[in-house]
Amino acid sequence: MFQSAVVFLSSLFMCGNVFAGSVASVSLSTLSSALNERMLIMKDVASYKAQHHSPVEDVEREQKVLAEAVKNAQDAGLDPHSVEPFFRALMNASKAVQYRYLADWLATPDVNRSVRSLDATRQQINQLDSELLTAISQRLLTGAFTEADTAWLSAQIMAPNLSEADKNNLLAALRLIHRAR
Fold first, then answer.
1. How far is CA 87 from CA 14, 16, 67, 133, 180, in A?
2. C-alpha span between 88 and 4 (Å, rounded)
3. Which of 89, 146, 170, 172 is the most buried (most CB within 10 A)?
4. CA distances (Å), 116 to each of 59, 109, 127, 168, in order?
5. Tens digits of per-residue pLDDT, 89-108?
6. Which letter does DSSP use for residue 141 in this model?
7. HSE (CB half, 13 Å, CA atoms) of 19?
């Protein structure tokens, strides 16, 4: 009887580890996809801003994005204050990517560049931000982000005009996020 209980509990433990591992890998995959897609959209944002002679810096918009992220973080079971550095790093990386596109276009104008509506682009960004928070929350159910996680994410995030320094800042801030207590 004792052996049966030990075998049963061992099997249960192993199943739990397999499940946690699969949740973590799916969450990391979703996270890398959403981060890449969000950075790719910055070309659309930069294109719109270039055509409309709008500045890259938009403090009012950044405050709205941050407030929305904090609210959505709480809904996702995350500590709202712990997501602030991540979203600041995300917005800084986004602005850096936009500046790099604008600089490239000054040197080599892209006359075939299409311009999407900024409202539609922002809706897509909002959706991706929600996906990011959900993936982060799911991943944190299995434990904190590890160096192996951030190394894997760094290798997966390959958006044009995103520098290694931008990625490092983003991933360092990601490791600060934790679930609400």
1. 36, 32, 10, 10, 17
2. 52
3. 170
4. 21, 18, 17, 29
5. 999 999 999 999 999 999 99
6. T
7. 7
